[in-house]
Design brief:
Blueprint (H helix, E strand, L loop, with lengths): L1 E3 L2 E4 L3 H12 L5 E5 L7 H4 L31 H14 L6 E3 L3 E7 L4 E6 L4 E4 L1 E4 L6 E2 L14 E3 L13 E5 L5 H8 L5 E5 L6 E2 L8 H9 L3 H14 L1 H5 L6 H15 L3 H7 L11 E2 L3 H4 L5 E4 L3 E5 L2 E4 L4 E3 L2 E4 L3 E2 L8 E3 L6 H8 L15 E3 L12 H22 L1 E6 L1 H17 L1 H4 L21 H7 L8 E5 L2
Parallel strand pairs: 1-7, 2-3, 2-8, 3-4, 5-21, 8-22, 10-19, 11-12, 11-19, 12-15, 13-14
Antiparallel strand pairs: 5-6, 6-7, 9-20, 16-17, 17-18, 23-24
Helix pairs in contact: 1-12
The chain binds NADP nicotinamide-adenine-dinucleotide phosphate.
């Protein structure tokens, strides 16, 4: 059976929900949101590991048009963020537009009929004039292939698919990875485990987290004084936005921040040998800067070890490090991040002349127009696509600009009577030349590290290298000559 709609949105994270709300508000009703799970929330539904919380303040990490006066603390936890998203879905009446339990397997463009056919796991096909992919960049767990992993006798799981049936109390646990997720759950599980070994490949930069409960008077003020919460959010926006200066090529301001962290680390870890292991040998900001008040102190516990000798092999009852030493384990937890730039390999998208999107990206690099549209793939839009992720501010801001841009694009199609639109090759090339010129000057390339921001050629395909208000400016209107507009014959 084929279900026909004008527009299909994939996913119900901040991207898909934001798109659905704004599409509906623009007067369009003929759309459906396809969601593989049984509820909304995207990454904030899926990541349920202990201690999961946001490292961007909640008053900024939320829809600007759905403010929440009641955030319980500066950096809310996953349950509160997910509850916020479910509440927004209910209050905005989004659920009738969502088909839950529908997993998208791929999409292909029909050049003659100028429609996308979207295939789903259940075998049901959808057809639409326009597809908006709000699938996010951090949803395919990266589980490294380690020799002997299948021989491990106990449970093994990834942070993004936490196995809550496994009781860690009194267990010997090995954690592999020390990224944004791991530094949140390590301090929590260390309170339960009999022994915890953390395998660190590269030490992260960890700043103290200025997290505080929201005082009741502030919640009241936000609820009663017109404009108070908006003013607070604006102040937050600018306080985060200035951080871009340090990362975007003005590397001379970094030593100040690096000094703060080094001092913090020295205070937290008096033992010089342990401190040396935890000290990054690359510049702050090269990888995502992390925040925690409890991560470093965890390594002061007698029952927690930090291994920096690499993972050689997994055996039935433990992990062998690079020196051949066995670290006993009843449970192994992978905090090893996600497939990011190569996530497109997991999408089966065929554009004009049947060109495969992942193959095109492998050949030319992951290049798009504004991180939203791709030459050769008409009427397809990505949200939080390549080079629109952030290290310094809230991605919800970027999502909102993309939502507005896509609505403007739809309006422009209607105005022109166009049946298909794609960015020209020239406009796409120009956009990427400028992006690459800027990211090459930035800390992500100059900082002396490798990270998931970079592709296999060392090119940053992930981060927006300018201020976010520049993204707002550049997407504020549809620049018609940048696009090829196709009209019905
Ligand atoms: P991540 O930051 O990519 O960290 C992965 C960790 O696993 C790194 O320490 C990495 O080491 C290590 N690793 C990967 N493969 C390995 C291997 N084969 N052997 C040993 N170690 C290996 O992943 P994540 O912690 O899941 O976070 C991903 C992103 O999610 C974050 O950057 C952030 O954007 C987002 N996130 C956000 C929040 C939030 O508060 N908003 C919270 C969690 C996650 P190397 O550094 O050496 O590669």
């Amino acid at each position: 059976m084929v279900i026909k709609k004008d527009i299909i949105i994939i996913g119900t994270g901040f991207s898909g929900m934001g798109m659905a709300m704004k599409l509906r508000d623009s007067g369009r009703q003929d759309f459906v949101v396809l969601e593989k799970a049984q509820d909304v929330g995207g990454t904030w539904r899926d990541n349920t590991y202990p201690g999961c919380e946001c490292d961007i303040p909640s008053h900024m990490y939320s829809f600007s048009y759905e403010l929440n006066t009641g955030w319980s603390k500066s950096f809310s936890g996953q349950p509160e963020i997910w509850a916020y998203m479910r509440k927004v879905a209910d209050e905005q009446g989004l659920r009738p537009f969502i088909n839950f339990g529908v997993e998208v397997k791929g999409a292909s463009w029909d050049e003659d009929r100028r429609v996308w056919t979207v295939r789903t796991a259940s075998g049901e096909d959808y057809e639409a004039r326009v597809v908006v992919a709000g699938v996010g960049g951090l949803h395919i767990p990266n589980i490294p292939e380690i020799d002997g992993a299948e021989t491990f006798a106990g449970p093994r799981f990834h942070s993004a698919s936490w196995d809550h049936s496994v009781d860690l109390k009194g267990k010997k646990v090995v954690v592999i990875g020390t990224g944004a997720s791991a530094i949140q759950f390590i301090p929590i599980i260390a309170q339960e485990t009999e022994h915890l070994t953390v395998f660190q490949r590269t030490p992260p930069w960890v700043l103290p987290k200025k997290d505080k409960p929201t005082p009741e008077w502030r919640k009241k003020a936000f609820a009663t004084i017109p404009g108070a919460q908006r003013a607070y959010r604006n102040a937050l926006y600018w306080s985060l936005e200035v951080r871009a200066i340090a990362f975007n090529g003005h590397l001379d301001v970094l030593p100040f921040a690096e000094k703060i962290v080094t001092k913090y680390l020295a205070k937290a870890i008096p033992d010089p040998e342990l401190r040396a292991k935890l000290t990054p040998d690359y510049r702050l900001g090269c990888k995502r800067v992390l925040q925690s008040n409890t991560y470093y102190p965890t390594f002061l516990r007698d029952d927690v070890d930090l291994s920096t000798d690499g993972v050689r092999e997994i055996v039935s009852d433990g992990v062998i490090d690079g020196n051949g030493v066995k670290h006993e384990a009843d449970v192994i937890i992978y905090g090893t991040g996600f497939h990011t730039i190569d996530a497109f390999d997991y999408l089966d998208i065929k554009g004009k002349s049947g060109v495969d999107l992942a193959a095109q990206f492998r050949e030319t690099g992951v290049e798009t127009y504004m991180g939203i549209m791709v030459n050769g793939f008409p009427n397809l839009a990505f949200m939080l696509g390549p080079n629109t992720a952030l290290g310094h501010n809230s991605v919800v801001f970027m999502i909102e600009q993309q939502t507005k841009f896509i609505i403007r694009m739809l309006d422009e199609m209607d105005r022109r009577g166009a049946v298909a639109v794609e960015p020209t090759k020239e406009a796409q090339i120009e956009f990427n030349i400028e992006i690459q010129r800027l990211v090459e000057k930035g800390i992500w390339t100059q900082g002396g590290c490798t990270s998931w921001y970079l592709d296999s050629h060392g090119k940053n395909r992930t981060i927006w290298p300018k201020f976010t208000f520049q993204y707002w400016w550049e997407t504020r209107k549809v620049n018609a000559p940048d696009f090829a507009w196709e009209h019905a014959a």
